[in-house]
Design goal:
By secondary structure, the protein is of the alpha+beta class. About 60% of the residues lie in helices and about 5% in strands. Strands 3-2-1-4 form a 4-stranded mixed beta sheet, with helices on one face. β1 and β2 form a beta hairpin. α14 crosses α16. The longest helix has 24 residues. The protein is elongated, with a radius of gyration of 28 Å.
């Protein structure tokens, strides 16, 4: 008998961390080998464990399935007390948790130190939270990218995407760098906002004007490149303040010019000239319009419900929108946005985002053009590569069989369309219970949604099977040749 002839490692200590690693390994082995969950109850397996690892507790099938996958996010900032902090957050089972906040004021600002903190956070999640970390993301700074590289070398199964919101903020930066006929007015906006913030008397008069005309006070926001949406919101708010600012100059110009030294009066005169400049306000409206699609998509990414398929659809929407702008005055700006989007998409985790669209039963391959990727061979190759990266093994034949059944809606997936439309019906009832159908605009929106559903074979509600894994694989697909987005549908959905 095996137990009578072999001797194991009963004299070696077995910690809680060892047990957690043991359960993680068995869960990965089960998924990678395609084993049924009942295999852990096999008698020969129990004998083998009792002989070699008597301290290890064999997890039940329930434990193997309940161990949650988690993604780790890391970001740093310097507080008002001049302390540099690193925050680590975990997302598991659609819930966000704070893992730890580390004071890194005295730590060296190196990739190696950041890697050490990330490893500590991963260890804490897997031992104290009982979750398995499958992805880790930070911003796209130099030390973060190096830390990503080192982390990928240490844990080959782990995937480390860049923060998509950071990437899209780079698109905003590239757009603001455009110095066409209207580009100079971007600097004038910043100067006007700075002047307004520095003049308490001006703000007080502006408050009185707004209360007398519209009955409320609108904010003057400052645009900061590292704050998502801040440029769009700053321009939007300034445009709303235009009537009040013009009334301020008309009635109180002499008062504004009466105080301060020569330098202060020169800045005030510059601000007054800016407010009187009609071309300036036209440029602001134009910048707001150009920034609006980017801001809309950024708002999707920073939401707690953001999912991987949103990334692919959003890049497609961005390309669709800016490539359709025919105004020659916006040509330089649109070209800059498209080029920046191509660069950001080239650095994205393309294959997993493409797969996320495909595993969404409302999309599958409908948003894509007819390219080799969407053929049976292309899909099999895509999901085979993803499996090999996630589980460090060759994809089992069952994966390709299930993929074929899913795409055709047969066998185990024969009822997926019924389930999909049942969910849509429930969602529609919930929306209808909260919508005032006496409003004409509401009625026409729902009529449009019905037409879109009829034409496209899908509804405007987005249902996604969350793809727990992210991956960075070499992929040279061009954004423009890859996806033909249902832009109008997506816009209505996000409204």
């Amino acid at each position: 008998m095996l137990g009578q002839t072999l001797h194991g490692f009963s004299d070696q200590p077995w910690s809680t961390l060892d047990q957690a690693d043991w359960e993680i390994g068995l869960a990965r082995l089960t998924a990678s080998a395609g084993l049924p969950l009942r295999w852990v109850k096999n008698h020969e397996w129990k004998v083998l464990c009792d002989c070699f690892l008597p301290q290890a507790k064999i997890p039940s099938a329930k434990v193997l399935t309940q161990r949650a996958n988690a993604t780790l996010q890391c970001d740093g900032w310097t507080g008002e007390n001049h302390h540099h902090l690193l925050g680590f957050m975990m997302t598991a089972q659609r819930k966000l948790h704070t893992v730890k906040v580390h004071d890194a004021s005295r730590d060296p600002r190196t990739a190696e130190e950041l890697l050490r903190q990330i490893l500590e956070a991963i260890s804490k999640i897997e031992t104290e939270w009982g979750a398995t970390v499958i992805a880790c993301t930070t911003d796209a700074s130099g030390k973060s990218q190096k830390a990503h590289h080192l982390l990928r070398e240490k844990f080959t199964h782990l995937v480390v995407p860049d923060c998509v919101a950071h990437q899209w903020n780079l698109i905003v930066r590239d757009l603001l760098k455009v110095k066409d006929d209207y580009g100079v007015y971007g600097d004038m906006v910043q100067e006007l906002i700075t002047w307004l913030h520095s003049k308490t008397q001006v703000l007080a008069i502006l408050h009185e004007i707004q209360m007398a005309t519209i009955g409320k006070t609108l904010a003057v926001l400052r645009a900061v490149l590292t704050h998502w949406l801040s440029h769009y919101l700053a321009y939007h708010c300034l445009l709303e303040l235009q009537p009040a600012l013009e009334l301020l100059v008309t009635k109180h110009e002499a008062t504004l010019m009466s105080g301060g030294d020569v330098r202060s009066r020169r800045k005030t005169q510059t601000a007054i000239n800016t407010i009187k400049n009609t071309t300036f306000w036209h440029a602001m409206a134009r910048w707001k319009t150009l920034l609006e699609p980017i801001s809309l998509m950024t708002n999707v990414y920073q939401a707690a419900q953001a999912r991987p398929e949103h990334v692919m659809i959003s890049f497609g929407f961005l390309h669709f929108h800016y490539s359709k702008i025919e105004n020659h005055t916006d040509l330089a700006a649109c070209t800059a946005v498209l080029a920046s989007a191509e660069r950001c998409w080239g650095q994205c985790d393309q294959e997993v985002f493409i797969a996320a669209v495909i595993v969404n039963p409302f999309y599958k391959i409908l948003p894509f053009q007819k390219i080799p990727l969407t053929t049976h061979a292309g899909l099999a190759a895509l999901f085979g590569r993803l499996w090999s990266h996630f589980y460090n093994s060759d994809a089992p034949l069952d994966l390709y069989t299930d993929l074929e059944d899913y795409m055709s809606g047969s066998h185990d997936f024969v009822h997926i369309d019924i389930y999909k439309f049942a969910l849509l019906s429930c969602a529609e009832k919930e929306v209808c219970s909260q919508v005032d159908f006496s409003r004409k605009f509401t009625k026409i929106i729902f009529r449009v949604l019905r037409l879109i559903q009829l034409i496209s074979g899908m509804d405007c509600h987005i249902l996604g099977h969350c793809l727990d894994h992210f991956i960075l694989l070499p992929c040279a697909f061009s954004l423009s040749a890859q996806i033909l987005p249902l832009a109008s549908t997506f816009l209505v959905c996000l409204a």
